[in-house]
Task: inverse folding
């Protein structure tokens, strides 16, 4: 993971493991992180939310139902939102059986556990999910991350990016943490005006691959930023993105992308 205009045009493509190696292990668990490292991902991506008692945990959906057994363990707590459970309650949940029985021991990791698991073995792409649901989460995030030696080392090495779909929130976070590179997520094609505006404060523009074409890649590079595309799981799409010159490909199958890059 590199940031800055000089690196943008010439760096090799980063292999970014989306929610870890989530095609082969339950997403956002430590098993998925460990597998991503075994699959030689350059960067591991995650999703971050906050519990009722203020702890930061790794979870994509704003409810716990899809990726844990919360409905069996706490049947009377509908709609099972992340923010309505304490960390101690969430730690009781099985976060792996929904994916495959051999992952039954997986638990929802805290952010600190996740950062320690990645350590210096890969870069970190951190995505606070729906930060508008968690007032002040930018302060919690900055405080917690600064206390983690692995995070500080990764920042110094240029191996951390914080990204969000909520661009106003991301700007607030960036004002608290000006030394941490940030990436703007887009589900639709960013306009030329948006790309120019982003270049005044962001280091990455990270759109859905299906929303863009090669011209978007060139426009982002022309404004000194990197572009990492998501979520690219098929070989033909991976090759297309690489041929366009993207800086990173975010995928559930980092081992497939690594193999394609090795052959190209
Ligand atoms: O890293 C990009 C991607 O994670 C954005 O979408 O929904 O998987 O968090 P989502
Ligand atoms: Ca994400």
Result:
């Amino acid at each position: 993971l590199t940031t800055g205009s000089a690196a943008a045009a010439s760096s090799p493509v980063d292999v970014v493991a989306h929610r870890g190696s989530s095609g082969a292990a339950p997403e956002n668990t430590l098993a998925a992180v460990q597998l991503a490292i075994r699959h030689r991902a350059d960067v591991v991506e995650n999703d971050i939310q906050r519990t009722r008692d203020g702890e930061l945990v790794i979870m994509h959906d704003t409810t716990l139902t899809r990726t844990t057994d919360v409905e069996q363990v706490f049947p009377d707590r509908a709609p099972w939102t992340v923010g309505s459970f304490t960390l101690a309650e969430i730690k009781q949940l099985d976060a792996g059986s929904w994916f495959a029985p051999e992952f039954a021991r997986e638990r929802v990791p805290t952010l600190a556990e996740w950062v320690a698991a990645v350590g210096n073995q890969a870069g970190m792409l951190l995505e606070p999910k729906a930060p508008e649901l968690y007032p002040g989460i930018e302060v919690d995030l900055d405080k917690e991350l600064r206390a983690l030696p692995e995070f500080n080392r990764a920042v110094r090495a240029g191996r951390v990016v914080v990204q969000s779909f909520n661009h106003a929130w991301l700007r607030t976070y960036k004002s608290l943490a000006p030394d941490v590179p940030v990436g703007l997520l887009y589900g639709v094609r960013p306009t030329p005006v948006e790309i120019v505006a982003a270049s005044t404060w962001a280091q990455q523009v990270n759109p859905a691959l299906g929303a863009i074409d090669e011209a978007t890649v060139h426009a982002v590079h022309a404004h000194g930023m990197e572009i990492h595309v998501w979520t690219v799981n098929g070989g033909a799409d991976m090759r297309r993105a690489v041929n366009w010159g993207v800086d990173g490909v975010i995928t559930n199958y980092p081992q497939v992308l690594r193999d394609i890059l090795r052959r190209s």
In short: The longest helix spans residues 137-146. The mean pLDDT is 96. The first strand starts at residue 14 and ends at 17. Residues 45, 47, 127 surround calcium ion (ligand 2) (CB under 6 Å).
